[in-house]
UniProtKB/TrEMBL annotation:
Lineage of producing organism: Bacteria, Bacillati, Actinomycetota, Actinomycetes, Micromonosporales
Keyword vocabulary terms for this entry: Carbohydrate metabolism, Chitin degradation, Glycosidase, Hydrolase, Polysaccharide degradation, Signal
Source species of the chain: Actinoplanes missouriensis (strain ATCC 14538 / DSM 43046 / CBS 188.64 / JCM 3121 / NBRC 102363 / NCIMB 12654 / NRRL B-3342 / UNCC 431)
Identification of the protein by name: chitinase
Keyword Transport: no
EC number: 3.2.1.14
InterPro entries: Chitinase_II/V-like_cat, Chitinase_insertion_sf, GH, Glyco_hydro18_cat, Glyco_hydro_18_chit_AS, Glycosyl_Hydrlase_18, TAT_signal
SMART domains: Glyco_18
Amino acid sequence: MRGLSRRLVAVAAAAASVVAAAPSPAQAHTSSKKVAYFTQWGIYGRDFQLADVQTSGAAARLTHINYAFGPVTADGVCASADPWADWQTPFSAENSVDGVADVAGQPISGNLNQFAELKRKNPKLRVLISLGGWSGSAYFSDAALTDASRKKLVSSCIDLWIKGNLPGLTPGVAAGIIDGIDLDWEWPGSSGNAGNIIRPEDKQNFTLLAAEFRAQLDRLGRSARKHYELTAFVPAAPAKIEAGFEVNKVFKYLDFATVQGYDFHGTWEAVTNQQSALRVPAGAPDNPDFSVENTINAWIAGGAPKKKLVLGVPYYGQGWTGVSGGGDGLFQPATGPAPSVFGGGTEDYKTLKNLPAQGYTVHRDLRNGHAWLFDGTTFWTYDDPAVLLQKSLYIRAKGLGGAMMWSLDGDDSRASLTKAITAAL
């Protein structure tokens, strides 16, 4: 027992210097997937650009970037949620990956052009379009319902995002930018955002939809002499896994799946708790409870190949205020969400990392792999480099496929979280 404690303390100590000691991209291991989400809307209020992904050093350490999100419409086709962000907005020299300002009349602008520039600087980087997301999954069930509707959806997605036929621009102008499709249907067969259409047959239809994507992507890939990847974002809750996924069938069509490893608890509950612990902490009020280990074991038990499971980790925290009960703040009643920059009781790591200098104490459960901040009134559960180093070591020990990060705009300007993950992977 004492030996285990010493090893876990050593993990935390090692993480303190992991950013400075992170290997260069040329030295880093290449077998594990390092997947990160870049949000379409982050270029606005968050002022987070793909140029920041390049200058921070994150891009050179990633294998994949998922561009979030492309909705599925009521007509059962793929579309852009924001054409201005995707291919219209011009970027200044300061905000461009290549340091050159966009000019009027160029064939394509927006984030897609910035992805093209990012890939020129990082030739091994793969960019996938993520379809759906929390607010864009309402019509997935309709689109996946029949063979004809599945073919219609898949062909429209490939035409828009893979072949790059963008409305109002030269046909094929964005060809070669997007390397595959990430299915973010939240959730087949069970509730997600209010208003989502849900059917019991979503479970079988998700497999059929993945098969149709795989068939059409492979058909295009044969002519293009390229492998187009197909991935999916999948849930943590065993009930949602059971309701929506034929686990022993669907992985035949997927290159890999990114597994939700966060939002286990949050400010929709009245008691402080962990949102992303590696294992269920001692004294947890819920039984059974969520944890990374429980989630991964549920997928493996269902038949998922370990190497196709990529663990999702958060670059943000969940926070409560009005915490009473004393102690270190964990598992205590609270009055509501903590104040935060963008509201809703969530906050980026780049902001939370500064709280210890503002009177917060960092608490760690090294055995169970989670950390939190508490100042006597306000509580934040979050992942820092020490936690992510521990999770990365778990990924390697378990034989999983890698790590996924939601989302890049939550990291600091040095890409400290990304470097902590890639140092171990």
